[in-house]
Amino acid sequence: MKNKALLVGINAYPNPSNQLRGCVNDIVDMENFIASKNKIYQRENIRTLTDSRATKKGILAALDWLILGATAGDQILFQYSGHGAQVPSQTPDFEKDGLDEIICPYDFEDENGAAGTGANAISDKEFAQLFAKIPKGCILYGYRIVATRRICPEGWKKRERKIQVHYIEVLTKLPKIKRWTTT
Protein backbone atom coordinates (compact mmCIF):
# COMPACT_ATOMS: atom_id res chain seq x y z
CA MET A 1 0.00 0.00 0.00
CA LYS A 2 1.37 3.40 -0.98
CA ASN A 3 -0.45 6.24 0.74
CA LYS A 4 0.31 9.73 -0.56
CA ALA A 5 -0.69 13.24 0.45
CA LEU A 6 -0.62 16.67 -1.18
CA LEU A 7 -1.00 19.60 1.22
CA VAL A 8 -1.39 23.13 -0.16
CA GLY A 9 -1.46 26.27 1.98
CA ILE A 10 -1.32 29.88 0.82
CA ASN A 11 -0.93 32.81 3.19
CA ALA A 12 1.03 35.23 0.99
CA TYR A 13 -0.79 36.15 -2.22
CA PRO A 14 0.80 38.73 -4.61
CA ASN A 15 -1.84 41.35 -3.74
CA PRO A 16 -1.21 42.42 -0.12
CA SER A 17 -4.95 42.90 0.45
CA ASN A 18 -5.48 39.15 -0.16
CA GLN A 19 -3.09 37.94 2.55
CA LEU A 20 -4.29 35.21 4.89
CA ARG A 21 -2.98 33.88 8.18
CA GLY A 22 -2.98 30.30 9.30
CA CYS A 23 -3.20 28.46 5.97
CA VAL A 24 0.42 27.33 6.03
CA ASN A 25 -0.04 26.38 9.69
CA ASP A 26 -3.01 24.22 8.63
CA ILE A 27 -0.87 22.09 6.36
CA VAL A 28 2.02 21.89 8.83
CA ASP A 29 -0.45 20.63 11.44
CA MET A 30 -1.93 18.13 8.98
CA GLU A 31 1.51 16.86 7.96
CA ASN A 32 2.44 16.29 11.59
CA PHE A 33 -0.87 14.56 12.24
CA ILE A 34 -0.76 12.16 9.29
CA ALA A 35 2.97 11.41 9.46
CA SER A 36 3.72 11.46 13.19
CA LYS A 37 0.53 10.92 15.14
CA ASN A 38 -1.47 8.43 13.09
CA LYS A 39 1.47 7.29 10.91
CA ILE A 40 -0.68 6.49 7.87
CA TYR A 41 1.53 8.49 5.51
CA GLN A 42 5.32 8.32 5.31
CA ARG A 43 6.98 11.74 5.10
CA GLU A 44 8.57 10.89 1.74
CA ASN A 45 5.05 10.39 0.35
CA ILE A 46 3.82 13.81 1.48
CA ARG A 47 4.28 16.86 -0.73
CA THR A 48 3.59 20.40 0.40
CA LEU A 49 3.13 23.54 -1.66
CA THR A 50 3.07 26.89 0.09
CA ASP A 51 2.65 30.48 -1.01
CA SER A 52 4.49 31.28 -4.30
CA ARG A 53 5.09 27.56 -5.02
CA ALA A 54 1.32 26.95 -5.02
CA THR A 55 0.65 28.15 -8.57
CA LYS A 56 -1.96 26.53 -10.78
CA LYS A 57 0.77 24.73 -12.73
CA GLY A 58 2.45 23.59 -9.50
CA ILE A 59 -0.79 22.33 -7.94
CA LEU A 60 -1.87 20.47 -11.09
CA ALA A 61 1.57 18.84 -11.42
CA ALA A 62 1.48 17.79 -7.77
CA LEU A 63 -2.06 16.40 -8.21
CA ASP A 64 -0.78 14.31 -11.13
CA TRP A 65 1.99 13.02 -8.82
CA LEU A 66 -0.62 12.26 -6.14
CA ILE A 67 -2.70 10.11 -8.47
CA LEU A 68 0.22 8.53 -10.38
CA GLY A 69 0.77 4.93 -9.39
CA ALA A 70 -2.26 4.75 -7.08
CA THR A 71 -3.74 1.27 -6.81
CA ALA A 72 -6.67 -0.38 -5.03
CA GLY A 73 -6.33 -0.01 -1.26
CA ASP A 74 -4.14 3.09 -1.42
CA GLN A 75 -5.23 6.19 0.45
CA ILE A 76 -4.53 9.58 -1.10
CA LEU A 77 -5.17 12.89 0.62
CA PHE A 78 -5.53 16.36 -0.87
CA GLN A 79 -5.78 19.36 1.44
CA TYR A 80 -6.12 22.95 0.28
CA SER A 81 -6.10 25.93 2.61
CA GLY A 82 -6.36 29.35 0.97
CA HIS A 83 -8.73 31.60 -0.95
CA GLY A 84 -11.66 30.20 -2.89
CA ALA A 85 -14.64 31.66 -4.65
CA GLN A 86 -17.61 31.07 -6.88
CA VAL A 87 -17.54 32.36 -10.44
CA PRO A 88 -20.11 32.26 -13.26
CA SER A 89 -20.07 28.78 -14.73
CA GLN A 90 -18.75 28.05 -18.20
CA THR A 91 -21.52 25.41 -18.32
CA PRO A 92 -24.48 27.15 -16.63
CA ASP A 93 -26.96 24.46 -17.71
CA PHE A 94 -24.96 21.92 -15.71
CA GLU A 95 -24.88 24.03 -12.52
CA LYS A 96 -28.13 24.56 -10.63
CA ASP A 97 -26.86 27.85 -9.21
CA GLY A 98 -25.00 28.84 -12.40
CA LEU A 99 -21.72 29.04 -10.48
CA ASP A 100 -18.47 27.08 -10.45
CA GLU A 101 -16.61 26.60 -7.20
CA ILE A 102 -12.91 27.38 -7.52
CA ILE A 103 -9.76 27.49 -5.49
CA CYS A 104 -7.45 30.45 -5.97
CA PRO A 105 -3.80 29.45 -6.44
CA TYR A 106 -1.03 31.93 -5.76
CA ASP A 107 -1.10 33.11 -9.40
CA PHE A 108 -4.88 33.53 -9.52
CA GLU A 109 -5.67 36.38 -11.93
CA ASP A 110 -8.26 37.56 -14.42
CA GLU A 111 -8.03 37.57 -18.20
CA ASN A 112 -6.43 41.05 -18.12
CA GLY A 113 -3.70 39.95 -15.74
CA ALA A 114 -5.26 41.56 -12.69
CA ALA A 115 -5.50 39.47 -9.55
CA GLY A 116 -8.91 38.24 -8.70
CA THR A 117 -11.33 36.76 -11.21
CA GLY A 118 -10.15 33.46 -12.41
CA ALA A 119 -7.76 32.79 -15.29
CA ASN A 120 -5.57 30.59 -13.10
CA ALA A 121 -8.30 29.27 -10.85
CA ILE A 122 -8.82 25.53 -10.49
CA SER A 123 -12.50 24.69 -10.78
CA ASP A 124 -14.59 21.91 -9.36
CA LYS A 125 -14.89 20.55 -12.91
CA GLU A 126 -11.09 20.32 -13.24
CA PHE A 127 -10.89 18.45 -9.94
CA ALA A 128 -13.63 16.07 -11.07
CA GLN A 129 -11.65 15.30 -14.25
CA LEU A 130 -8.45 14.71 -12.30
CA PHE A 131 -10.10 12.57 -9.63
CA ALA A 132 -11.87 10.48 -12.28
CA LYS A 133 -8.39 9.05 -13.05
CA ILE A 134 -8.18 7.48 -9.61
CA PRO A 135 -8.22 3.70 -9.94
CA LYS A 136 -11.04 1.57 -8.57
CA GLY A 137 -10.62 0.68 -4.92
CA CYS A 138 -8.38 3.64 -4.16
CA ILE A 139 -9.57 5.93 -1.36
CA LEU A 140 -9.44 9.72 -1.80
CA TYR A 141 -9.63 11.98 1.21
CA GLY A 142 -10.34 15.62 0.46
CA TYR A 143 -10.09 18.41 2.99
CA ARG A 144 -10.45 21.98 1.92
CA ILE A 145 -10.47 25.08 4.05
CA VAL A 146 -11.36 28.03 1.91
CA ALA A 147 -11.55 31.65 2.92
CA THR A 148 -13.80 33.51 0.52
CA ARG A 149 -13.72 37.25 -0.02
CA ARG A 150 -17.12 37.64 1.61
CA ILE A 151 -15.84 36.22 4.85
CA CYS A 152 -12.26 37.47 4.83
CA PRO A 153 -12.46 41.15 5.68
CA GLU A 154 -9.33 42.97 6.77
CA GLY A 155 -8.27 42.43 10.35
CA TRP A 156 -8.13 38.72 11.16
CA LYS A 157 -8.81 39.13 14.88
CA LYS A 158 -10.81 35.94 15.34
CA ARG A 159 -9.72 33.47 12.69
CA GLU A 160 -12.43 30.97 13.61
CA ARG A 161 -15.11 33.42 12.50
CA LYS A 162 -13.44 34.17 9.20
CA ILE A 163 -12.94 30.69 7.79
CA GLN A 164 -15.70 28.67 6.25
CA VAL A 165 -15.27 25.11 5.08
CA HIS A 166 -16.34 24.37 1.51
CA TYR A 167 -15.87 21.21 -0.49
CA ILE A 168 -15.05 20.60 -4.09
CA GLU A 169 -18.21 19.46 -5.84
CA VAL A 170 -16.97 15.93 -6.47
CA LEU A 171 -16.50 15.49 -2.72
CA THR A 172 -19.82 16.84 -1.48
CA LYS A 173 -21.82 15.02 1.20
CA LEU A 174 -18.66 13.79 2.89
CA PRO A 175 -17.49 14.70 6.41
CA LYS A 176 -14.69 17.19 7.12
CA ILE A 177 -12.07 14.62 6.21
CA LYS A 178 -13.84 12.83 3.45
CA ARG A 179 -13.58 9.27 2.27
CA TRP A 180 -14.39 8.47 -1.32
CA THR A 181 -13.85 4.99 -2.63
CA THR A 182 -14.02 4.37 -6.35
CA THR A 183 -16.06 1.37 -7.39
Provide the fold topology.
Blueprint: E1 4-9, H1 23-37, E2 46-50, H2 56-67, E3 75-88, E4 99-103, E5 122-123, H3 124-131, E6 139-147, H4 159-162, E7 164-165, E8 180-181
Parallel strand pairs: 1-2, 1-3, 3-6
Antiparallel strand pairs: 3-4, 4-5, 6-7, 6-8
The main β sheet shows up as: 8 strands, mixed
In the CATH hierarchy, the third-tier topology is known as Rossmann fold
The DSSP helix count reads: 4
CA gyration radius, whole angstroms: 16 Å
- Give the C-level CATH assignment: Alpha Beta
Q: Structural class, from secondary structure content?
A: alpha/beta
Q: Residue ranges: pLDDT <50 for 5 or more in a row?
A: 148-183
The figure for the number of domains is 1
Q: Quote the average pLDDT.
A: 76
Second CATH tier, the architecture: 3-Layer(aba) Sandwich
Number of strands: 8
Helix content range: 10-25%
- Oligomeric state of the chains? single chain
> In whole angstroms, how far apart are the ends?
18 Å
Q: What is the 3D form?
A: globular
In sequence order, what are the helices and strands, one letter per element? EHEHEEEHEHEE
Strand-residue proportion: 15-25%
Give a written overview of the molecule:
There is one protein chain. The chain is built from four helices and eight strands; from the N terminus they run E-H-E-H-E-E-E-H-E-H-E-E. Strands 1, 2, 3, 4, 5, 6, 7 and 8 form an eight-stranded mixed β-sheet that branches. The chain has helices at residues 23-37, 56-67, 124-131, 159-162; strands at residues 4-9, 46-50, 75-88, 99-103, 122-123, 139-147, 164-165, 180-181. The chain is α/β, with parallel strands linked by helices. 21% of the residues lie in helices and 25% in strands. The chain has a single domain, classed as Rossmann fold (3-Layer(aba) Sandwich). It is globular, with a radius of gyration of 16 Å. The two termini are 18 Å apart. Strand 1 (4-9), helix 1 (23-37) and strand 2 form a beta-alpha-beta unit.
